[in-house]
Structures are given as structure tokens and as C-alpha cells.
Amino acid sequence: MNARTELPTGTDLLAEIDRLRRERNAVILGHYYQKPEIQDLADFVGDSLDLSRKAAATDADVIAFCGVRFMAETAKILSPDKTVILPDMDAGCSLEDSCPPEQFAAFRAQHPDHIALTYINCSTEVKALSDIIVTSSSAEKILAQLPADQKVIFGPDRNLGGYLMRKTGRDMLLWPGVCIVHEAFSETELLKLKAQHPGAPVAAHPECPAIILDHADYVGSTSGILDYAKAMAGDTLIVATEPHIIHQMEKAVPEKTFIGAPGADGNCNCNICPYMALNTLEKLYIALRDLSPRIEIEEGLRQRAKVSLDRMLAMASGTVGLGDLGPLRAGG
Q1: Concatenated DSSP letters for 244-285?
Q2: Does the pLDDT of residue 273 top 90, yes or no?
Q3: How many angstroms separate the CA atoms of 232 and 291, rounded?
């Protein structure tokens, strides 16, 4: 452990984090995929965009985002005057890694008649190269607002894009990225689990491959899956997404049973996000203490990225149409 990460002997991490939260006027955000101990101390727990919007609405001076890097960058895009820290700057995302900005820019240049509808799980640079950002919960609604003859690039998640194509009948050009967590689920092991729990529904995130989604009774975002768990009539649910969401389910409806869908060997931890797991209480304490690692985004880049985010928020609200948003790149 290097000098920066050494903690004084006997440090009460929870007490120290609370002290620093008050002293720094900080808000702590915890994604649903974080470890339970981080979820339990966070001021807000939720999906990435929802967390960033809630933090922006506070009077906090500091946002401590316990999630992954693109999420903290989104918080900075929406809150440029706040200090945004990430407990571990190595907490990346396989979807973001799959879509380097220079390759995405070249791909766009090869298809100038397409607009880029881009999943929020991407870098700030890719957001700035995109026309409209979407989340897993808003993508279908936004896609429905695009003219039927408008050609669309969807990236970086080919599974979410494929799900939208199957559901809407809309053809899109898909970027070939995947989430390593949702790719790890096994159809064979899922079928075994369903046989062990007859009648138990399956709730799955649309980042899963089609062979998993084909067995799902509900497909939706993490917050959508949580809502389904609360509302479903049965007492057992099989959950095909990162299993730390189950912590919130068990808190909300402790009388129900939640079972994480298995990986290839039926017993692996391959469906735990290795990037999310990099955040720890120790690193959160040090980040609050040192106000580092800090998210910094060049202002011109931030503003370009914010355009695509603002378009999503406007279209998802249902109060603003595509024609009110100005020309997209494909249209000049």
C-alpha cells in the first residue's frame, strides 16, 4: 500500500467519511452495483444519470461518485462548478473501452447520413461526437421520435441496440461493444436455475445477450428491475444483472427471495463488475480527504458533450420534440 492509501491505525472509516462529508459539503453517490457498505452510506443510490441529476440539484460543493469513470464524468458535465471525485480512477467500463473516440469519429465519417444515438455508457469524448445520448430506460422512447427514414448508428452496446431493433422493428447500424458483466450470463445455467425454481420470473438488463433476454419476463434498467421486484406478485425473482442490485431489493421487500443469474460454471463471480468493485470505503475516505482523484473536463469538450445529454433529457421528458432541438450532425 503506497503512502497515499495508508490509513492511520484504528481509523473509524464510517465516522471519518461522515466527518469529511460534512466538512467538504459533499454529496456521496452510490450506484446500484456498488458494494452494500457503500450503498448504505451514500446520500443517494440509483442509476448513473439519475444520480448525476440529483447531485446537480443539491448545494453540495463536492460530488463523490462511487461508480465508474463515465458516470463521474457525466456528473461533471452536469455540475461544472462542483468538484467531482472518483474513489478509483481505474474504475472504467468495458463498453467505454470498446469505443475509442478516434475510432468512433472515423466510423461516423464513413456513414455521414446516419445520426449517432449513443448509450450513456461511453466517454465524454464519444458523447461530444454523438447526436443524442440515451439510457436503457429512455432509448425506446427517444428512438420512436426519430423519423422512420432516418438512418441511425447505435453504440457502444450491441446487445441493447439489438434488443431495441427486435422490439421496435427499426434497423440500426450497431457498434460492436458489450458489457463484460452481462455477457457472462449462461443460458444453460439460467435454464437450470429456472427448473429449480419453477414459476419464478426472470428480470434482465437489456445489456444481456439475446439468448438471455429471450428467457426474461421483464427487461429493463436497473431501477426498472428494482421496481419490478417490488411490484411482482410472486415471492422469488431471478435477477440477470450485476448482483449488487439485490441489496436494494432485499431492503425494499425483505419477505421476497432474489437469486442472481449464474455465469458459465453456475458458481462464478464473473457477473460482479470488476470496475465497480475497485471502489472501497478506504478509497472513498482518501478521495474525500485529498479531493482526489478529481474529474477534469476541458470546457469546450464539456459543452459539446452536454448538447447530446440535453437532447436526451428534453426528448425523454416528452415535452420537446426532435424538431425543436436544432439540426443534428446528419442534417448539417
Answers
A1: THHHHHHHH-TTSEEEEPPBTTSS-STTS-TTGGG--HHHHH
A2: yes
A3: 42
Residue indicated by cell numbers 445529454: 309
Angle, alpha carbons 237-39-65 (nearest 5°)? 125
| Alpha-helical regions (H) of the chain | 13-23, 36-41, 48-56, 69-78, 94-97, 101-110, 124-128, 139-144, 158-168, 180-183, 187-196, 210-213, 222-231, 245-252, 281-290, 299-317
Question: Is the pTM value of this prediction over 0.90?
Answer: yes
- What are the tens digits of pLDDT across the range 54-85? 999 999 999 999 999 999 999 999 999 999 99
Pairing of strands 173-174, 236-240: unpaired
Peptide bond before residue 156 is cis, with ω within 30 degrees of 0: yes
Residue 242, number of CB atoms within 10 A of its CB: 24
Local structure of residue 62 (DSSP, 8 states): E
DSSP, residue by residue, 67-121: S-HHHHHHHHHH-TTSEEE-S-TT---HHHHTS-HHHHHHHHHH-TTEEEEEESS
**ω into residue 274 within 30 of 0, thus cis?**
no
pLDDT digit string (tens) for 179-207? 999 999 999 999 999 999 999 999 999 99
Percent of the chain with pLDDT over 70: 91
Altogether, the residues listed in the chain come to a count of 332
Q: What are phi and psi of 263, to 5 degrees?
A: -85, -165
- Radius of gyration, alpha carbons of the chain: 20
pLDDT of 332 strictly over 50: no
Which residues 6+ apart lie within 8 Å of 204 measured at CB?
A: 212, 213, 215, 216, 218, 219, 225, 240, 241, 261
pLDDT in tens, 4-53: 556 766 679 999 999 999 999 999 999 999 999 999 999 999 999 999 99
Distance between CA atoms of residues 205 and 157, nearest Å: 12
pLDDT confidence of residue 298: 98
Residue 77 cell numbers, joined: 458535465
318 contact partners, CB below 8 Å, separation of at least 6: 141
